[in-house]
């Protein structure tokens, strides 16, 4: 029966890929993934203290090195687990990216490594060939001439293809994001959200939601927007989603304090907004992205401690994921939120390692 189901699903995906011109990317297969002892495990207590490490294989291919306590070269994912208290991994997925980075095959390489370390995964579908965020929600090039119905089919086929590949290797996907930071919608112009208009966003999101539930029925599907401290934004957006019957399981937030000297005030606003959002919409909340400037590790510690201390007493979030802590300062044109300097962790993620003692 399992074999029959697998053949049927394979046939469905092949047909969808043919009719929708969706192609799997073949990249990063040259990387050695046999780098962990088979008995390496992490104590996962049900509260994720995670890291988004989508850049990891690209960094390694460029020669970036990471170092343990004794100065020895070590794998960054294992270093995050052992020294920083990271117990979950988030990976972004792009549709047909240049060079293959963050395409399906590259995601599988990183997912296998997380699985070897017993690190559960959040899979973050951008539905773009590159970055998707409030400043850019570009339609995948192969889909640009599709009808609305074809776009729904493309979303469903893409989600099914990626998640089935993970499921087929028994990889532990705990959460699925349909869209990345989508207050303006996704796959513009079809899925644009603006004012009182949602265009085709509800149908596109539902296509991804249903596909996710087919493969990983127990994984909450996250609807994710930015600026977690902005109560007005969350009221407008999620009221609009409720009005249009958008189906989701969990609210995802990003939180990047700016300007940096306002981090304390903005963190206070975040901690007020989260329980308000939970009560208003009846959904759990996850901080899917967070970050602070690389030369402010003490401030980052204080920010994370404030959030986690409050959560230990009030249980307002389902977890927190730091965005690309392993990337070197200034990477990719100026990334400034690293938690590593010269291949070694700073103190920024110390609250992750200490969190279990506070619960």
Write a concise keyword list for the protein shown above.
359 residues, TIM Barrel, eight-stranded parallel barrel, 14% strand, globular
Your description of this structure?
- This protein is α/β, with parallel strands linked by helices.
- The protein has one domain (2-28, 48-358): Alpha-Beta Barrel (TIM Barrel), CATH 3.20.20.80.
- Helices cover 40% and strands 14% of the residues.
- The protein is built from eleven helices and twelve strands.
- It has helices spanning 2-20, 56-61, 76-84, 104-116, 148-168, 201-215, 231-243, 263-281, 297-314, 331-334, 350-354, and strands spanning 49-52, 88-93, 121-125, 173-178, 185-186, 191-192, 221-225, 250-255, 285-290, 320-323, 340-341, 344-345.
- The strands form three sheets. The protein has an eight-stranded parallel barrel with strand order 1-2-3-4-7-8-9-10, surrounded by four helices. Strands 5-6 form a two-stranded antiparallel ribbon. A two-stranded antiparallel ribbon has the order 11-12.
- Strand 9 (285-290), helix 9 and strand 10 (320-323) form a beta-alpha-beta unit.
- The radius of gyration is 20 Å and the shape is globular.
Helix content: 25-40%
Tell me the number of strands: 12
Provide a count of the helices. Answer: 11
Q: What can be said about the biggest beta sheet?
A: 8 strands, parallel, barrel
Element order: H for helix, E for strand: HEHHEHEHEEEHEHEHEHEHEEH
Overall residue-averaged pLDDT value: 89
What is the CATH topology classification name?
TIM Barrel
Q: Could you tell me the radius of gyration in angstroms?
A: 20 Å
In CATH, what is the homologous superfamily? Glycosidases
Low-confidence stretches: 1-44
Q: How would you classify the quaternary structure?
A: single chain
**Class per helix and strand makeup:** alpha/beta
Query: If strands are numbered along the chain, what order do they take across the biggest sheet?
Result: 1-2-3-4-7-8-9-10
